[in-house]
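Q: Could you predict the 3D structure of ABC transporter ATP-binding protein?
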Amino acid sequence: MSIVLSCDRLNKKYGQNYALRDLDIQLEENVIYGLLGRNGAGKTTLLNIIAGGIFANDGTIEVRGKKLDKGELPEDFCFVREKNKLFGGARLIEVLRFAANFHPNWDWTFAHKLLQTFRLDPNKKIKHLSRGTESLIGNIIGLASRASLTVFDEPVLGLDVLMRERFYKELLEDYANHPRTILLSTHLIDEIAPIAERVYIIDEGSLLLHEEMNQIRMAAYLIRGNSDAVSLFTEGKRLLHTESYGHGKIAAIFEKLNDGDRLQARKLDITIENLTLQKFFSYLIEGGH
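A: Sure. Here are the predicted structure tokens for ABC transporter ATP-binding protein:
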């Protein structure tokens, strides 16, 4: 697959503090990515640099092989910010009309369908909308734009479970019919697991992990059993976390297990469970790197 976006050794400093440090990211064509990190990890800083809102101190960004100058926007690009600066006095439909002017692949039929799906009144003024509804407006723009590179920053902020599920459903269905590169930055980590094909995990401005979601599922495990048995089993494996309780121990590992490993686990009378993405993320951030 061709590379749509490439960030090479990005650095961003505020005073003496690094918001991003030598960050490398590559997004391939027609893939859904998750961008994960705790608050202050550098996610929004990275997205704002890509969108030309702020400038990196060092490093380069290329879109489809073309190096971007400072402040230059990628072509056929849509960035849905966490905090949209919408026109408070405007009606919802007017905001959509304004956004449509910037996206040549805009699909009005899809936009009207999304208004119905999310139960939004197109004539309602923006200043009368809730925080969650503002998120939905941004999501309609991001989806209906059909931009070949679409970035969402916390797209389900303020939404209840039902609306979050509707958004994910619409995104996946439209992606299946109109593939493009999508980057979702979110703190709702387990919710992104069925959506993203690959994830980037960053912390303190540095990259901790870039991996396919399926590979994480096949390598992130929680081991539980007698303390000595668990220690023996995890020896030589990538250990993310350990915790003792009485004579027992649990250990989180990031390692593909073969038939021999599973046979050894049965002999040692220890259990192997799959880690949720949330737990994997937490253990990785807290000391697995």
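Q: Anything worth pointing out?
A: Residues 218-288 form a domain with the Alpha-Beta Plaits fold (CATH 3.30.70.240).
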